[in-house]
Amino acid sequence: MVDTLGLVFGLGMALTLVVLHFFKGTSKPVPEDIAQEVLEQRASTVPETDFPEPYNRSIGGGGAAGAVAGGAEGELEDSEEEDEGFDPSSIADDEVEYYEIEYVKEGETIEVANNETILDAGEDEGWDLPYACRQGQCLSCGGRVASGEDSHDFVQHSNNETLSDDEMEKGYMLTCTAYPTASFSVETDETP
Ligand code: FES
Asked: Membrane-spanning residues where (predicted)?
């Protein structure tokens, strides 16, 4: 009798386990793409950086950062072109032009060639004009368009490592590297 009950009990347990085996875990839906979800969560916690690929750690940010880096590179190329400066030796002898430059403080107007600096031309007249480096690297030779107009319209520099565009727009120039491109009046010994 005991053996029969044990056998029935054992069969019942086995049947229960078989049923549980087939139904266990099948009711919970599985996300279709867990990997993408995890990637997006991680991406939202990683700050954007300006590093171009492959150093950009943000997911999906590489393209934008690359575009920014490309833009900066373009600007750098532009500024490098601007910094090359004017080369007076590139003017052929038969293309030299002369402009009337009035030196206001010296009280005279002289002709200055477009391959001669405002400083050199003044010194040739015997005037004691201020200077130091004579290479566009300081402000000692500073001068200004007397009218206060933009000096870009009257001179071009072979080298300018000192004056900003804003200062030049207020008429300032470095007479040691400034070559005339038009006639104008200059006030020597003027700095921003
Ligand atoms: S003397 Fe230095 S910039 Fe002209």
From this structure: 6-23
Ordered domains of the chain (ranges, CATH): 33-84 (no CATH), 97-188 (3.10.20.30)
Three-state helix/strand/coil letters over the chain: CHHHHHHHHHHHHHHHHHHHHHHCCCCCCCCCCHHHHHHHHHHHHCCCCCCCCCCCCCCCCHHHHHHHHHHHHHHHHHHHHHHCCCCHHHCCHHHCCEEEEEECCCCEEEEEECCCCHHHHHHHCCCCCCCCCCCCCCCCCEEEECCCCCHHHCEEECCCCCCCHHHHHCCEEECCCEEECCCEEEEECCCC
CA 89 to centroid of ligand 1, rounded, Å:
19
Which tens digit of pLDDT belongs to each residue from 114-146?
999 999 999 999 999 999 999 999 999 999 999
Read off the pLDDT of residues 14-42 as tens digits, 9 standing for 90 and up.
Answer: 666 555 555 555 555 555 665 667 667 76
Question: Which protein residues are within 6 Å of ligand 1, measured from CB?
Answer: 131-134, 136-138, 140-141, 162, 174, 176
pTM above 0.85, yes or no: no
